[in-house]
Every structure is written in C-alpha cells, then in structure tokens.
Amino acid sequence: MRNPLKPLVEKFGLPRVIIVSFFLFLIAAAGMFQMNLMQLLSDCLRRWGMYGILALAMVPAVQCGIGLNFGISMGIVGGLLGGLIVIQFRVAEMPSLVAVHPLFAMWVAVLLAIVIGVLLATGIGYLYGLLLNRVKGSEMTVTTYVGFSIIAFMNMMWMLLPFTDGELIWPNAGKGLRNTISLAASFSNVMNKTLAFTIGGVTVPTGLLLFFFLMCFLVWLFMRSKTGMAMSAAGANPMFATAAGINVNKMRIIGTVLSTVLAAVGILVYAQGFGFIQLYNGPMMMGFTSVAAVLIGGASPRKARIAHVLIGTFLFQGIMALGLPVANQFIPESNLSEVARLIISNGIIIYALSQVKGGSGRE
Amino acid sequence: MNKKSKFNVWDFLFQNKVVLMFLVLCIGATIASKQPLTFVIPELFTRIARNSFIVLSLIIPVIAGMGLNFGIVIGAMAAQVAIFFTTYWGLTGIGGFAATVALSTPIAVFFGFLVGKLFNYMKGNEMIGGLVLGYFAEGLYQLLFLFIFGGVIKLNNSDLMIATGVGVKNTIDLKDTVKYALDTVPMLTIVEVGFYLTLIGLGCSAAFKVVKKQAVDWKAVAVKAVAAAVVYGLTFIKPVERFLSADRLLLLSAVELGCLLTVLWQAFLFARWKMLSKRADEDSILEPLNTQKMIAYVALAAVVYGLTYIPALYKVLIAVKLPVMTYLCIGALCGFNNILMRTRLGQNMRTVGQSRTVANAAGINVDKTRVIAMIFSTVLASWGQLIFLQNVGTLSTYGAHTQVGQFAIAALLVGGASVQNATNKQALLGIVLFHTLFIVSPLAGKELFGDPAIGEYFRVFVSYGVIAMSLAMHAWKKASKPKLESDGEGSAEAA
C-alpha cells in the first residue's frame, strides 16, 4: 500500500502541503477560540484584493523569462509618485467632481493616480527591461538589489522632491515627505467601499475584488493574445523562440514593462485599501511578499499562472489575517504572526530556488 | 587586455574605477562635512577594528565560486546566540570571551554545514538564496529569542528577559561582561603567550619529526627558540615593560615601530645574505640580493617616519589608539586566507571556483569543497561578529545582525573586489573607504542640505547601489561571454 498523501506531496511540493495544513489549522483554531470567523473572512477578502495585483505582477515577469521579479519596487515607486501627485493637486476635493458624487471624485483621483503611475512605470520598466536583457541568467539576484537600490535612492528623493501640500510634508517646517501619508482626504478605501455589501456578517469589498478580477482578466486576455503567446514561448525556450522568429529580447522587455506597470497599479490598490501611502522603507520587502504569494499558489520561477496568483494570495494573506488574532490567543501581544510571516514567505522562496536545478547555473 | 607592453594610465584608471570613484567621493564628503581629521581618523580606526574581521570572512566563498556570501548573517546569529548564553551564565572578561568563541564555533560550524548543503541545491543562485536564507533565519532567530527563550526553555534573569519572562530584551548590556575583552589584552600578555606558544610549537614540530624519523635541524630549532627567548627577555627591561603593559597602542608608536621593524628586517636580510654568501657552497645557488628594493624600503620607512613630524599629521597620530589584540586577530585572518590558498584545500576551492566541471573531472569533490568553504566563512563571520560586539559593548538583540551581510559585502565591493575575485587588500581598502563614507556622509548631508537624514539615506543607497552595480556588471560579463563580444559593453555600464 502506498501512502495516499505521497503523490499529493510530490505534486504540490511539501511546503505547500504544510502551508495549506497550517491554514486549515488556523481556521480550526480560530473556530475553537470562538472568534468571529465572519469578520476574519472579511479581513481575508480585503487583504486578498489589496495584495492580489502586486502578486499578479509576477505572472508576466515569470512568463517572459526574467523569473521572479523581486524588483517590483521599480514599479512601486512609480505608483507612489502617481499617488503623491494626485494628493498634491487635491484632485479628490475638486468641487466640480465632488458635486457629482464624493465617491466619483475619489474614483477619478485613484484612476488618475493609476494612469500617472502606469506612465511612469512604463518608462522605468523599459529601462529596467534593457538592463535585464544584459544580465540574462542572473536576473533574480540583480533585480533584488536593483529593487533595494531604487528604494534607497527614492528615500533621498522623498526628502528632496518639491511637494508642498500639508498632507504630504512633515508639519512644523520639517524637511521632506512624511513616512505615512493619510489618504482620508483623497482616495482612502474608495474601491473597498464601492458596491460593498455585508452578507451573513461577511463584508465583501465588491469594488476592490472586481478591480482585482478585471486586472487578472486583462492579464489573462493578454496571455492569450498573439504577443502574450510569443512572450510565454520566449520565456519557456528562448532558443526555440528565436528559431521561430520571435524577438526574445523584445518579448522580455514587454514582460518586464507589464510587470512593472502592474506593480504600480498594485501599490495604489494596496494603498487605498490600507488608507495610507507608505514611503521610505515601507515598500522595501513588497517584492518578497508578492513572490512568496505566487509561489505558495503553485508557481515556480519558470512558470506562473493567474490561478497561482488567486490561490496563493488568498492562502498567504489568509494566514496573515488569521495568524495575528490566533497567535494573540496563545501569547498575548506578541508578534508571533510577524515571525510566521518571515518564516513562511522566505521559506517558500528558498524551497522554490532549490528546485531550479541548472536553471541559471554558472556553466 | 593581453597587449600590456607598457603601463597604460587609462587601463589603470578603468580597472580601478570603483575604488577611484569612492576615493573621490570620500575626500569630497570629508571636505564637505567640515570635520577635522582628528575626528574622522580615530573614528575610522575604531570601525576598522570592529568590521574588518567579518569582511575578511567573505573572501573564501568568493574564491570557491559561491559569490558574495549573504549567508554570513547566519554566522552573526550564531555569535549572538553564543553571547546570549555566556552573558546569561555570567562569564566575564577575556575568559568569557574565549568561552563565547568556543560556544559559537560549533553552532556556526553546524549552520555553515546546513547552508553549504542548501547552496549545493541552488548552484548559480547562491547569492539570492543566501539573501533570502538570511531573512528566513531571521524568522527562526526571532522565534528562538522571542518565544523559545523563556517560553520553552525557562530562563530566570530579569536583566536579560522581558518582564513577562518570555522573550529576550531588546538590548543586552555587555559592559560588565565582555566589553573590550579582546581589545584590552595587554601587549605584555600577548608577547608572553606568543613566547610560550612558539616554544610549544617548536617542541611539537621537532617531536613530530623525531617520531616520523625525519631529520631534525636542531640548530635551526635552537636559533628560533633563542630568538623567541630574546624577544621575551626584552620585556623584562623596565622601559619596554612599561611600554608594553598598555593595551592600546598609540598610532604614532605603531608607525614608528613599523618603520623601525622595516629597517631592522632589511638589515637582517642583508646580514643573512652576507653570511650565507661567505660560506656559500657550490651547489647552493643564492638568490641575488635586490638592493634596489631594499634601499627603497628603507627610504620609504625614513620618509614615513619623517612625515610624522608634520604637525597636522602628528595631531592625528597621537589621537588614535589601536586595540592591539584585535588588530593582531585581523592580521592573523589575512595570513590565514593567504596560507589557506597555498594548501591543497585552498587550491581545490580555487579550481571549483573557476569551473565546477573541470574540478569534477580532476577528481575534486565539488559539493564537499563548497560545504567546507561555507563552514569556514560562517565560523569566521561569527567570530567577526563577536569582535564587533565586544567593541560596541551592547547587543541589540534583534538588530545587530540584520545589516551585517549588506554592509560587509558593500565594503568588500567598494575596495574593488567583484563576485569572482576578492583579496585581503581589497577588503581592507574597502573597509577604509566605505567606513570613511559612513562616518562623514550624515555630517556632509547636514552641511550641504541642512539635514543629516539625507546623508544617512545616501550611505544606505551607496551600500545597496554598489552591490547592485557589482552584481549587474558580473552578470553582464557572464552573459556576454558566450557571444565572445568585446568588453566595450562593459565600459558603458561602468560609466
């Protein structure tokens, strides 16, 4: 008799089995402690939508062959700049827009921020793609440090950029932008609130989820298009793709730009759900969180699908949402869940890296 | 590259572009910070003593082809676990420090072994793997210090533990335990211990040869023993004893001693050559004496000695006090790195680093060699962290290790090292440049932009940026190699 779990473990990989079991354990524990499961589920859904698009940014990157894009911070800074510009010009408080509906004004603000972010991210992503085409085989190492560098560089920029709005800069004549900028006056929770409804105690952030699914659908559509197919081919087998007349370098640039753009959109969606824009070192580890999410969903450094994003983000963020209250039941006021996050997210990345045999070896 | 008929200035500038850039940056920032050298230099020497050891621990993995070892963070964690326990047990002084080293070593060996094993599964991805592994280990470390200490293992010590009894406090004061334990070893003790060690060493090697029935050059042994005894005997002269009984050495004295020793050494070489040439046999070929080089050394020593009389330099030189034992340890590690490369193991590492395929074909156990390299690096890193901690005097339980890997690697790269090539000289030069920048950049930021935070962000950016640039340049070179393209592309990136 074979162990019936063995094929399952082989197919999904041991860490994923552990993570799913852990998730189920957390649900059971939460039930046991008589917690408000419905409220926790609402939290899961909210986090799912918030982090989803950032994880989605991995799909084009992996498919076009650059691997796990630890450097989505490149796109994130674009998105942050978009958000800051919208706040600076107080778009959400323009009388003509507010006259229609306050929520409408907020939507205009967030969409404008996204458009600016996307434009910036396209430019950044193109340059980034050019760099990545020069460093084939070591993209992951390079992207990580290029991502860290841009965050460190922007730290200086946040101090020096000429923003003047009182919401943005430190009060009392301090220098530079604030660490966390409240979005209460601009587009805080605009997506979460739109069409939100509560059913049986579960709050469903409809607007947020719809936007997330729309993005997933757009990426799915792109992947099915001729360019998307060519891109996947270029990523899966560059030699073969070249032979088939595909410009591999161009496809890699397209994938990188797309990934960077999605990161810019993702950070704004995250910020609106969180209610604050975090500057300075806030977004530094975003890349790791997103990478961990798709990996938990079943992706590998060579293959990632939309389904991986949906499943992975839900599981990962579910563990985060459930972990904190459950951990507090065991040890009050501890950051056990933060420790769990470090172990889970980095553990799954290590597992994935150790599975890539000869993927980008030195010889 | 292969047409090196004459010294080309541009080639030199291009090959040392990183070092030169940082040299300019350091000088500029120092001037901009408006700080006197009497402040910058002593601070710099403190930082050299603290950080050199851990930077030097990065060299072995680079040679073994495993790139920049971001996994040294794990060595640092091993050190911190050890220092926590010795503090808990209340061990103090140099004995406590030795116990900490003894405890951290097996932990680091074990961790290094695990890291090495894991890296064998991710060949070519060691650097990103090491980085992520550092974060992963950080999670386990926090689990250990926040929950297992006190939660699972009962520890009763209100100075170390949080009031609830579960979890270790944020900072642990080492003032009464191992602070300056290594720095304050008096020179007299060092000489004394060195004398006995030399005697033991000579005795052992002679005994070993006798047992192995090899010829023993009793005369040479006797000469060495007498020389050691003479040096030891010198310490009984009152002024020398007084001079050596201090634990810190004035930089001025160090420079003077250095000059004196250079001259004496050259004189010794000359005398020995004279003696040997007098009774030279026909079959022994004497190497001709390089008089030019010797005169150059002596002249250099004289010039350096002369420079100490310049008032500005003199002020700096009497402001710096070197912790002798710490600097000796750093020197010893430099020596160890050099000697290791002359052994069979070191040669194996070099071969593995150049090509795993070739190494495998030559019968070298590639995986095992890589694991050994990792063990060396992790153990050395843990010792380096201990040296750092005993000098700083407080253990920031959850923060002391986090930046270790990044700053050490950045320092190494600033000195001109690359992913595939690193030497002691580059490491030391890198530490000097990187830490000069570290000291002066907040002050320069304050002077230039009116805010020290800019300077702080700048130095963090530099440390990330130099790593990113170095990794990108390495990957670029690697990717363009198969196409046999000229390195014209490389120069564009560098600019």
| Main beta sheet of chain A | 2 strands, antiparallel
Major β-sheet annotation of chain B? 2 strands, antiparallel
CATH top level of the largest domain in chain B? Mainly Alpha
From the 3D coordinates, which CATH architecture of the largest domain in chain B would you assign?
Orthogonal Bundle
Q: Please report which band the strand proportion of chain A falls in: under 5%, 5-15%, 15-25%, 25-35%, 35-45% or over 45%.
A: under 5%
Fraction of helical residues of chain A: 55-70%
* SS summary, helix count of chain A: 16
Structural commentary:
The complex is a heterodimer of chains A (363) and B (495). Chain A is globular, with a radius of gyration of 21 Å. Chain A has a two-stranded antiparallel ribbon. Helices cover 70% and strands 3% of the residues of chain A. Chain A starts with a helix and ends in an 8-residue tail after the last helix. Chain A has helices at 5-12, 14-32, 37-56, 58-64, 73-88, 95-100, 102-134, 139-160, 190-193, 206-224, 226-236, 238-243, 248-274, 286-296, 306-330, 336-355; strands at residues 180-182, 197-199, 202-204, 276-278. Chain A has one domain (38-355): ABC transporter involved in vitamin B12 uptake, BtuC (Orthogonal Bundle), CATH 1.10.3470. Chain B folds into two domains: 16-181 and 321-494, ABC transporter involved in vitamin B12 uptake, BtuC (Orthogonal Bundle); 186-246. In chain B, strands 1-4 form a two-stranded antiparallel sheet. Chain B has a two-stranded antiparallel sheet with strand order 2-3. In chain B, α3 (37-56) packs parallel to α14 and α3 (37-56) crosses α18. The model of chain B is unreliable at 483-495 (pLDDT under 50). The interface between A and B is large, with 50 and 52 residues.
Can you tag this structure with a few keywords?
heterodimer; A: 363 residues; mainly alpha; ABC transporter involved in vitamin B12 uptake, BtuC; two-stranded antiparallel ribbon; 16 helices; 4 strands; 3% strand; disordered C terminus; B: 495 residues; 2 domains; two-stranded antiparallel sheet; 73% helix
